[in-house]
Amino acid sequence: MTKVRGTPECWLTDMDGVLVHEGQALPGAAEFLGRLIEMHRRFLVLTNNSLFTPRDLAARLARSGLLVPEEAIWTSALATADFLSSQLPNGSAFVLGEAGLTTALYEVGYTLTDTDPDYVVLGETRTLSFAAITRAIRLVEAGARFIATNPDATSPSPEGSLPATGAVAAIITKATGAHPYFVGKPNPMMFRSAMNRIGAHADSTVMIGDRMNTDVVAGIEAGLETILVLTGSTKAEEVARYPYRPSRMLASIADVVDLI
Length: 260
Prior knowledge:
alpha/beta
């Protein structure tokens, strides 16, 4: 198998559907991560999930047998905090979200408040209340700018789909007419912020994902080589429906090991 653009220096990889599925490591994931470390490649594990901090996610991956340093995890919450810090340093936000998002914003110097915030920031949450949605709507109506970590309408669970950030954003948009700026995938902004984090350049970085409509399209728009693995959301027969193509389509992360 030929190398991708010679030997890539940096690797970005999605987490769910590529490295793990429902808390279980996928075949080849441990070998892939081990090879990256052995070859001294810079890498980040990416996720649109904004619920958890990198420390939480590193612990969850460790329970599945995958050892990933917390500094090698990049979430949509971190990307959102990075974006807001660049736009308005030390600003303020009313946050609908969990520890992954509130911690990320706190660490870049943001004040979390429900009184005249600069932004309403929405992330995935399991504790959403009618009162919180109402407050968000009224703050957006009063002029707060509307930001969301990602547009995913649902997230998976063993019991079935759960409403996610995009679904809740739709409620606020319907009530206010304001559309959020989504920072996470498929916005290539998330990949650019990840590359900045590890000092990567587009012409020597590869993105691995399992979704054509988020991972692959955002990778293409960020100027990266892209690898689609077939262990997650997108099936091989669905690829032809899209007007763009991944650089490679492989059965699983196990087939990527020899490319490093």
